[in-house]
UniProtKB/TrEMBL annotation:
Matches recorded under InterPro entries: AB_hydrolase_fold, KANL3/Tex30_Abhydrolase, NSL3/Tex30
SUPFAM superfamilies in the cross-refs: alpha/beta-Hydrolases
Domain KANL3/Tex30 alpha/beta hydrolase-like stretches: 29-170
Designated name of the protein: Alpha/beta hydrolase
Length: 207
């Protein structure tokens, strides 16, 4: 077990929280993960991504948005989520030895959207998107694909084939791994996350 370090992230809308966990050796990169709209950073698919990244030699930081720290389930507006996320990036970058390490952004559902929208501003080299919500259930006309398309960096998407939020198509710079029988919670998808994340990290980090 790795020892976790908890850090407060001051934001304009109250404090967020980071949980940092280091690999056994010197980290070769950082994976910053965000939670779903009403969820937490201990969601099974996020934990699977964390474990895979730690085993691959990355430091993992999981960020809880201020509205969740305050005990609210309804998410803040997108601009507030993005601003808080970038504050978290700044806190991670301010830690000793982490400033110049390559950053991979990621998250599940709402957290994946935030990671895609802010990838360029955060200086991320890639995005890991778990259960990206392509559209609200039953409303494919309200597509969020522009957020995914606009990430500007390589993206790994892991998506259940029964996800009512839809499944994005493969595209240049984007790999979509579909988990048979999994819904938006990616239940039963943890082994797939654990299997595909290390290879993706190796590819984007050049090792």
């Amino acid at each position: 077990m790795t020892r976790a370090t908890r850090l407060e992230v001051p934001t304009a809308k109250g404090p967020g929280e980071l949980v940092l966990e280091r690999p056994s050796g010197t980290p070769r990169g950082v994976l910053l993960l965000g939670h779903g709209a009403g969820g937490a950073v201990d969601a099974p698919d996020l934990v699977a991504a964390r474990d895979a990244a730690l085993a691959s030699g990355l430091l993992v930081a999981r960020f809880t948005q201020p509205y969740r720290v305050a005990g609210r389930r309804a998410p803040a507006p997108a601009a507030q989520l993005d601003a808080a996320w970038l504050e978290a990036v700044g806190v991670v970058r301010g830690r000793r030895g982490l400033r110049h390490l390559p950053l991979v952004a990621g998250g599940r559902s709402s957290g994946a959207r935030v990671a895609c929208r802010t990838a360029t501003a955060a200086g991320a080299v890639a995005v890991v998107a778990l259960a990206f919500p392509v559209h609200p259930p039953g409303k494919p006309e309200r597509s969020r694909l522009p957020e995914l398309d606009g990430a500007g960096v390589p993206v790994l998407v892991v998506q259940g084939d029964r996800d009512p939020f839809g499944t994005p198509p493969d595209a240049p710079g984007r790999r979509v791994v579909v988990v048979p029988g999994a819904d938006h919670a990616l239940r039963r998808g943890e082994p797939v996350v654990a299997d595909v994340v290390p290879g993706f990290l190796d590819a984007v980090l050049g090792t």
